[in-house]
Amino acid sequence: MPMDRDAFIITPAEMSAIDRDAALSGIDSFRLMTSAGMAVAAAALRFYPEALRFVILCGPGNNGGDGYVAAATLCRSGVPTGVYALGDPARLKGDAARAHAEWGRTAESLAQYRPKPGDVVIDALFGAGLSRPVPDEAAVVIRAIKHEDLPVIAVDLPSGVDGRSGQVLGESFHASHTVTFMARKPGHLLMPGRTLCGRLEIFDIGIPERILRIRTAGLCENGPHLWAGHARALDPSAHKFKRGHLAVFSGGPLATGAARLSAMAGLKAGAGLVTLASASAALNVNAAHLTAVMLKEVEDAGALALWLADKRVSAFVLGPGFGDMETARRYALMLSDRALVLDADGITAFKGDPASLFDAYAGGETRLVMTPHDGEFARLFPDIEADPSLSKVDRAIAAARRSHAVIVYKGADTVIASPDGRAAINTNAPPWLATAGSGDTLAGIIGAHLAQGMPAFEAAAAGVWRHGRAGAKAGEGLTAEDLAAAIEPLPAFS
Questions:
Q1: Domain final position from 192, 217, 242
Q2: Is 414 one of the annotated binding-site residues?
Q3: Is 437 annotated as a binding residue?
Q4: 133 assigned binding-site residue
Q5: Is 65 annotated as a binding residue?
Q6: pLDDT tens, residue by residue, 145-189
Q7: Same structural domain for residues 343 and 418?
Q8: Is 242 one of the annotated binding-site residues?
Q9: Which pLDDT score, from 0 to 100, does residue 255 have?
Q10: Are the C-beta atoms of 369 and 462 separated by less than 8 Å?
């Protein structure tokens, strides 16, 4: 997978390994800390020149060391500062101890800090490595600062936010600005951490990219770099079948709209043909609403088997508004040699027997994409969902490996995960995408990419990205019909 340096996402554990590798390669670790602390001080002066006082809260580890460097830099700049320490600074070790010594002053106890109007707080308590709830002493101060609504600059990550999962560990700052180093952490992008970081600045403190690449496991921000090699411009000589034939299964006569949204999205996303497969009871309803999308009667498994003899039907979407769980199970298993997007009722249909679905798609290249929201995810993967030690990224990867499918774990922080361990966090979705029919539209976009021959992970990643772009273009107050109409051409992003 080609990697864009700006798209790197590095877990706290990977960052610790990168720091060790940098030191072993001969890079002065204290110089890295100095660069980090000076970057924080520069951000403070740049964004808050009107501050009456900069208050630096220093923790018992290297994040606190960054804070002492920032404090020394601000003191040299001639601005008023106050430094408050969590724990005894005499117990600091390594670079943090050196940073405290070079600052050369006495820090007051964190419990002594009383927020004042005009204070700008620099949060250097814990950073991204925190894995347990913040201690009570810190929680009290965090709440007091939030009560006074003081601006907070977070060093690496707002204290109290888990850098791996984005979850709040008891209490956390809501930063107005966050300065992190070398690359973003999952907690910067996963909810609710993303909403607590404010403006995010990534500062290169001098670790070579080759060291980052060795330790990076393949997690990145979703974007065009993931599918650039698969977003081909249209061949002027191509006929409609060469552009892919997508089939979408309709629900019954009172539940046809969801499938039509998927079908229209598939057509807008670039499939050469889209056919809506409908039982006889829903034929007239669908026929009254369709023009460019074709309609085919598929009454039962026998009719589907006959249709599958046409190998030009290259991808399928099953689940939006489908309703009939038994038929959904049967159809999904019959399609096991084709590319399939399984959504909504198609996922729920396997609640009692997910292994039969996973086994059916286990061989060969990945050809199944599932698009669950939280509730649907729990129906197929209850044990993974219930494990509190797993982040959303961890859960998506574990589910992808078990199911032999690409998982699009939907939400404001949608995660796309592949059975091979690759994963991407999507960030371009506006909040108004949370509307009826939005997921149906996403399924159709991904289905179009599969029909055009894109690999499953790239098809899903590109689909989620285009879905977010369409939502931003359609604007607040959109309906799902608006969303399909706002889909932009994929080659424009490659």
A1: 217
A2: yes
A3: no
A4: yes
A5: yes
A6: 999 999 999 999 999 999 999 999 999 999 999 999 999 999 999
A7: yes
A8: no
A9: 95
A10: no
